[in-house]
């Protein structure tokens, strides 16, 4: 489970397409003058072109460096080699996310990788501007689009799951390609790549705007003929076969007389495992998804093992190797067990199919891998929080019976990230996500310390008073470190799941434990093979993030918690206030960007969670929060009465948190969904017409920052850290050099070819 940044912008910026950009008249002229055929408006878009700026990244899209130089230089030679090979494993595995995002994402990556690998960016720019009637703004738009593809691992945003398209006309994109050194060297290959993906790059039909099942969105976790009903059917099958969901995809094959569900496991090994009949369908288990990419992962994990600090790390990496080689998730679970036992490593890492946010059914994991160095000063504060956790847990607003029988003290460290591969970089993580390990054996919390300050550079904050802006600028990093600690350790790390085991035994006293909401005996629970994800499915991620955020808000009101982080007196009061203000500001000023009115769906779990909290606190009344439209259709003002946080605020969050935990503990999905959906609604009228105010939010949206990450290289047996400028040119160059000695382009094209019949 992960936590995103708190106050930075989350989607594309507040701007209009530039004069030569994606506007109807330019597209029209473009196709008449350059292709000899008229432009079919409906071919690309299902809406007016004035809406298109929601789907492009602005030319002023900010880029920031994820600086880890000091932490990396503090490593020994052995530790640097360990980090180097782990990073190579993470980056190669991270390419899997391209395949998991959309059918075209790997091809777009290969096209852009070849384009920018063949010559320096400045040379490519000169060729485009001198020989192709391309403007500087149009070339910049291509750089920004390329950065978007690289940092999101595909053409859908890692935070928000909406598609983005280039902010330059189709023909100008083509002109840049045809004036490039890459095209001169490989004209047939470059032309083929462009022909295969140019239309879909720009396509914004309704069912392609966002990720989701194919009737409403795009997904490659399931073939295009799969629905939620198919996903539920496959889940039923896998539960019976005791197969977890994290590392597989589902392909539905409809033949004349039968339906075959191919459940393809991610592994280096290939071939069919089994086939059997189930309810008039054939269930075929196969291996070999992402085989050649995972081969590179396994190879580098094996190399890293030689430089592991201890036997626990060696066993951990061995299990990961075996899991990726054979497609066996139980081996990854065993690796995770060793990982939680590896307390206080100098170099921290985790890798695999982890978070389920982007699977429309909420069960299959996106690949990610990170490598980081421990920040000892901040980690000491988190260690103190862990020490006091057993004193703080009883402060939470649910009975002792709803808490785990024993608090399994985790490792909690602050890390400076060297490498984070995937569709985005969070601020904090609580893993592993396997329920049986988290509930009974333990977990780890990490906060990514160098991510938080990088995210807060040059942030614009509308909708606030000048006084609140000043306080946010002063305390937002400090308050967010408090929130991350509480969110990860005592949020995701708290609460018991009630189980009825296979033999009929319960893991709670079914005779004495009562539901605190109604005083009645417990009437629902998890069956033996149930997990939280399999019960709560599509709602699960957002619901759990909401619970963890509420724990952070609730416990930060405790002065003893703030003392752990070094805050007392007025400063403690300010940090507490800013923590609440920061989250509520996200709710008002950012979260509605992630709501899709046409389908009445939320596109991002954390955004929905924060909006729900806002609705709960507004419902509490007492003018704890006020939001007013200060300029009709143009501006809002949010105020929070800090004198009421410990009274109205604490009671409202406490009561809501109790319901969240009771429904989760008892697996009461029906009650949970009814409550959560109510608060997730976006009304267009009433005292808080969020549906109308969404337009104001969109008009003020700020771009989400892109991170430039360093690379490591071997030179004469030493590991060299290479950093890059915090520009789009630097970001692109970092990716070009990251894969320069590999054949990732060939591998990705093969994967596209293998899967194309399913999409």
TrEMBL record:
GO terms for molecular function: aminopeptidase activity; dipeptidyl-peptidase activity; metal ion binding; metalloexopeptidase activity. Its EC number is 3.4.14.4. GO terms for cellular component: cytoplasm. Its main location: cytoplasm. Its cofactor is Zn(2+). Binds 1 zinc ion per subunit. It is found in: Cytoplasm. It catalyses: Release of an N-terminal dipeptide from a peptide comprising four or more residues, with broad specificity. Also acts on dipeptidyl 2-naphthylamides. Zn(2+) binds at residues 487, 492, 545. Residues 16-29 have a biased composition (Basic and acidic residues). One of its GO terms (biological process) is proteolysis. Residues 1-29 are annotated as: Disordered. Keywords: Aminopeptidase, Cytoplasm, Hydrolase, Metal-binding, Metalloprotease, Protease, Zinc. It comes from the Eukaryota. The active site is at residue 488. InterPro entries: Dipeptidyl-peptase3 (IPR005317), Peptidase_M49 (IPR039461). Belongs to the peptidase M49 family. This is Dipeptidyl peptidase 3. It comes from Diploptera punctata.
């Amino acid at each position: 489970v992960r936590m995103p940044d708190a106050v930075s912008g989350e989607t594309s910026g507040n701007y209009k397409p530039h004069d030569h950009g994606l506007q109807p008249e330019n597209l029209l002229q473009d196709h008449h003058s350059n292709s000899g055929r008229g432009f079919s408006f409906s071919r690309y878009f299902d809406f007016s072109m004035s809406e298109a700026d929601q789907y492009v990244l602005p030319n002023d899209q900010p880029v920031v460096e994820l600086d880890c130089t000091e932490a990396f230089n503090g490593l020994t030679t052995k530790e640097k080699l360990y980090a180097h090979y782990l990073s190579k494993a993470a980056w190669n595995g991270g390419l899997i996310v391209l395949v998991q995002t959309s059918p075209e994402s790997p091809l777009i990556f290969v096209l852009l990788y070849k384009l920018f690998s063949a010559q320096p960016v400045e040379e490519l720019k000169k060729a485009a501007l001198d020989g192709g009637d391309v403007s500087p703004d149009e070339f910049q738009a291509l750089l920004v689009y390329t950065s978007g593809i690289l940092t999101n691992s595909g053409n859908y945003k890692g935070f928000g799951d909406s598609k983005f398209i280039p902010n330059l006309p189709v023909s100008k994109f083509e002109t840049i390609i045809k004036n490039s050194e890459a095209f001169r060297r490989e004209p047939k290959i470059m032309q083929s790549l462009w022909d295969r993906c140019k239309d879909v790059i720009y396509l914004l039909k309704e069912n392609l705007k966002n990720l989701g099942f194919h009737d409403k969105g795009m997904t490659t976790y399931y073939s295009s003929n799969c629905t939620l009903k198919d996903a539920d059917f496959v889940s039923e099958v896998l539960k019976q076969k005791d197969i977890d969901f994290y590392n597989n995809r589902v392909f539905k094959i409809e033949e004349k007389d039968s339906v075959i569900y191919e459940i393809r496991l991610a592994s280096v090994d290939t071939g069919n495992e089994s086939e059997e009949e189930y309810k008039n369908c054939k269930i075929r288990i196969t291996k070999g998804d992402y085989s050649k990419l995972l081969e590179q992962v396994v190879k580098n994990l094996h190399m890293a093992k030689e430089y592991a600090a201890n036997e626990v790390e060696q066993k951990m990496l061995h299990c990961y190797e075996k899991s990726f080689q054979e497609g066996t998730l139980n081996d990854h679970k065993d690796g995770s067990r060793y990982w939680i036992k590896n307390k206080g490593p100098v170099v921290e890492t985790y890798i695999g199919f982890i978070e389920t946010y982007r699977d429309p059914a909420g069960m299959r994991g996106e690949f990610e891998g990170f490598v980081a160095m421990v920040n000892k000063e901040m980690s000491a504060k988190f260690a103190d929080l862990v020490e006091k956790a057993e004193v703080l847990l009883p402060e939470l607003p649910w009975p002792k019976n709803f808490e785990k029988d024993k608090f399994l003290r985790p490792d909690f460290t602050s890390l400076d990230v060297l490498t984070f591969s995937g569709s985005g970089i969070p601020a904090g993580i609580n893993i592993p996500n396997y329920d049986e390990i988290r509930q009974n054996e333990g977990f780890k919390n990490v906060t990514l310390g160098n991510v938080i300050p990088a995210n807060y550079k040059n942030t614009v904050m509308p909708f606030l008073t000048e006084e609140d802006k000043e306080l946010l600028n002063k305390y937002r990093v400090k308050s967010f470190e408090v929130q991350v600690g509480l969110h990860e350790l005592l949020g995701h790390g708290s609460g018991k799941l009630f189980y009825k085991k296979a033999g009929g035994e319960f893991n709670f006293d079914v005779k004495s434990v009562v539901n605190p909401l109604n005083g009645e005996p417990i009437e629902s629970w998890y069956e033996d093979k149930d997990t939280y994800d399999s019960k709560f499915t599509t709602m699960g991620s957002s619901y759990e993030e909401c619970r963890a955020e509420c724990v952070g808000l609730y416990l930060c009101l405790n002065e003893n918690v703030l003392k752990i982080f070094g805050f007392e007196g007025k400063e403690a009061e300010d940090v507490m206030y800013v923590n609440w203000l920061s989250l509520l500001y996200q709710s008002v000023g950012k979260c509605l960007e992630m709501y899709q009115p046409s389908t009445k769906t939320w596109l991002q779990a954390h955004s929905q969670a924060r909006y729900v909290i806002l609705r709960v606190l507004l419902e509490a009344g007492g003018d704890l929060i006020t939001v007013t439209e200060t300029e009709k259709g143009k501006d809002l003002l949010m105020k929070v009465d800090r004198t009421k946080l410990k009274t109205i605020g604490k009671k409202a969050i406490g009561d809501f948190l109790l319901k969240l935990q009771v429904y989760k503990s008892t697996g009461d999905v029906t009650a949970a969904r009814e409550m959560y959906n109510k608060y997730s609604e976006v009304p267009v009228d009433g005292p808080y017409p969020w549906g109308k105010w969404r337009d104001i939010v969109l008009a003020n949206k700020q771009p989400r920052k892109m991170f430039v990450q360093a690379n490591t290289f071997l030179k004469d047996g030493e590991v060299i850290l290479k950093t890059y400028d915090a520009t789009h040119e630097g970001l692109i160059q970092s990716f070009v050099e990251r894969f320069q000695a590999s054949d990732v382009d060939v591998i990705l094209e093969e994967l596209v070819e293998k899967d194309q019949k399913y999409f």
